[in-house]
Amino acid sequence: MTEEKQYWSVEDLESLTETVQETEITYQDKAIKISWCELTESEEPKALAVDENLSEQDKNQAYLELARERVAAMMKKAQEKKSDESVLPVSVFVKLPTTLKFLVSNKVLGI
Predict the structure, then answer these.
(1) pTM above 0.85, yes or no
(2) What pLDDT, in 10s, does the model give residues 27-56?
(3) What local confidence, expressed as pLDDT, does residue 33 receive?
(4) Which member of 6, 14, 39, 100 lies 3.0 to 4.6 Å from 43 by CB, making a disulfide possible if both were Cys?
(5) Is the alpha carbon torsion for 92, 95, 96, 98 positive or negative?
(6) C-alpha distances in Å from residue 43, one per residue of 25, 47, 56, 61, 72
């Protein structure tokens, strides 16, 4: 039995960048609520191209910084659209330990 293919409606596609998404992650046996909103091209953080002549370590660091900026922009947009004090604020996200930042970023970016 084959599944019927699902298609996006025009309305759903148009709402992708306006819909606030929410979820929780667990860190050290406690939940953290996060929210984000997809960005339009004009909302994407302005990034310079990563110099391909850099060492692998430096390139990876540059890509990590770009990802952090994008996640922060997505979280900020969601917070502007739907204020919720129970959600991790961007001002705290930037201060988190690296391990926790990775968990949040991976969830938001769908990794």
Answers:
(1) no
(2) 999 999 999 999 999 998 886 677 788 888
(3) 97
(4) 39
(5) positive
(6) 25, 12, 28, 22, 12
Residue 60 tokens, joined: 């990876």
- Cα separation of 60 and 54, whole Å? 9
Quote the tokens at residue 23: 């979820």
* Identity of residue 105: S
Positive or negative: CA dihedral 81, 85, 90, 93: negative
Q: Please choose, from the candidates 39, 49, 56, 45, the residue with its C-alpha nearest in 3D space to the C-alpha of residue 109.
A: 39
- Tens of pLDDT, residue by residue over 49-106, are 777 888 888 888 888 888 889 999 999 999 999 989 999 999 999 999 989 999 999 9
Q: Which of 102, 82, 80 is nearest to 93 (CA)?
A: 102
Distance of alpha carbon 91 from its chain centroid, rounded?
14
